[in-house]
Amino acid sequence: MTDHSETDVEAAFKTLPPEFDAFKQVYRDEILPSLQAREGDRIAAAEKARTYTRLGVAIGGAIALIGLALMRSPFALFLGGIAGMGLFSYGRHGLNYLKREAKLLIVETAANGFDLQYNPEPASPLVLSRFRNLGLIPSWDRESFEDQLLGSRGSTNFEFFEAHLEDKRTRSDGKGRTRTEWVTVFKGQCLVMNFHKPFNGLTKVFRDLGVLNVFNKIGNKLSGQNLERVRLEDPKFEKAFEVFSNDQIESRFLLTPDFMERLLELERIFQGGKLRCAFSGGELFVCVEGGDLFEPGSMFTPLDNPDRIRELMEDFVAVFQLIDSVSDRAGRAPAAKPDEDNTQSDGGENGPWT
User: Fold this and answer.
1) Would you say 203 and 330 are in contact if contact means Cβ atoms under 8 Å apart?
2) DSSP class of 246
3) Interaxial angle between packed helices 306-330 and 257-270, expressed in degrees from 0 to 180 and rounded to the nearest 10
4) How far apart are alpha carbons 324 and 322 in whole angstroms?
5) Where do transmembrane segments lie in this chain (predicted)?
6) Strand, helix or coil for residue 5
7) Nearest to 256 by CA among 326, 153, 333
């Protein structure tokens, strides 16, 4: 069993903000012993997964080849594929169970430390319709959700969740035959923050899509929101984002270079793209497509691998930093004095660990 040194643990937490220092001791005292106690089970499950993967390839390939020889039909490839995938899935069952167990242990403990409520498989969030009404996500017919976080960061209430939305579509061929299929229209992260103070206008931010930006402009006109293009002062972000608003002054006040940097960082940490957000009412809505957050990483590496905890905590950091970068400014009017702009939010740094 691998026993990573204290130096490895220190290195894993070194890149995290100071507010995670207290969690380091929780990790050592509570999480690490539990992970190490299951390492033997992980090794056995990983070996089983490898064995059944090899069997799946061998048996699935044999069924496909024999079937082709006897049946002379592409259907044999389908049968071979089904057999191979069945063996592969069966072999991974134990590994997937341990993965869910490790994820719940780490993420739920961290969430509790920041006074957050964590739900690994939530029901449909009520706020989702607001995302659709703002044009941040399309309509859908089937949905699934995971990794919901509810709570507050300083004085800012927020809700985070991952969503997979699908649209049911029916296609017809030239012979009048129809086929129904489910098409993914959104798969990624949604974050909404409430600042307890309404914005004067509506501001939307989209990732620059080049020639496809015309669809954003058409959508804004069809929505009847009378949004106009906002020119950003920083050329770097002008190339990266398209901004529309019905309050030019407020939009420039909210869209600081720090906030725009956080949006780019959010894409990197979330391993996604097509980011868009909207300031509406007293809330900020953010969507990022792709990626899969709050996952414990490969189960073919030791459970006590310090990279596992570091990567999971970086997901928390990305969410927290985005909230911190805008929450203080969103709580003030655009006419704030220059010295007020330097006020730093406490960011909710004091949790139950301290």
Assistant:
1) no
2) S
3) 150
4) 5
5) 52-70
6) coil
7) 326
